[in-house]
Amino acid sequence: VARCVIHGLPAQIRACSAAYFQLTAQDRYGYPCAAASIAARVWYGLSRELAREGESRPGIAGSGCECELLECHLMDSPPEDPEPKITAWFDASRPGLYIIEAWGRNAPAAMDPAHVQVVPAGADASRSEILTEDLNALLNAPLHQEQYLRIRAYDQFGTPCECGGDKVTVSHTSDVCAEILVQDGEDGWYQVKYVPTLTGEGQMFVRINEELVGGEPLDCKFFEPDSVITLEKTGSRTDMTFITTDL
Question: Is the pLDDT of residue 201 over 70?
């Protein structure tokens, strides 16, 4: 193999179970080479400073750098393909920096490594969570008072999302009523502000990208706050006259 080039890997991708790219390999005469003649490897967790042409790589055993060597799969294109290419893929389910190297098996060093930054995938409603204390408050929410549902978004691999932009919607059954506003923290957190306007018991539906958070609706109960009983103190003794104040 005299020439080996990596194609189809942008500088940044979302986390996925398999990140695909292609390799073009040619011998010294320009003829395509098969996958069996190529060696490829993927480093996870390295810095962007990668030595080339046979020099020691950061992260190799004994260097003191934290990294992990991942498996890279290779597959030849069909024989009838007019422009033969090698399809390759690796597990990119964890956010972080990946460095991909490919070279001829008889070559002394890797050629033209590619750097790919993997960011968390879009939020997965089944993995995302609403804070327990907010769920409890939803079961006993007073009218005309601001309440909140805080949502921590996770991707399909259980990795906390670090950015926003997902479609978050909230609705409820007709036996309750509330003013609702969704706020995107743009850091993987979403906040639903709701103000109950009608007493009753029903259900609230919180969705991320059209799917229910946690896979089921949320029970809710809105109530009219009772009058608050206070005591008026006169002099050294307590006057037990009840004074009621509506909140």
Answer: yes
- pTM greater than 0.70 (yes/no): no
Task: Say if residues 247 and 228 touch (Cβ distance below 8 Å).
Answer: yes
Share the mean pLDDT of the chain.
82
Q: What distance lies between CA 196 and its chain's CA centroid?
A: 31
Q: What pLDDT was estimated at residue 46?
A: 59
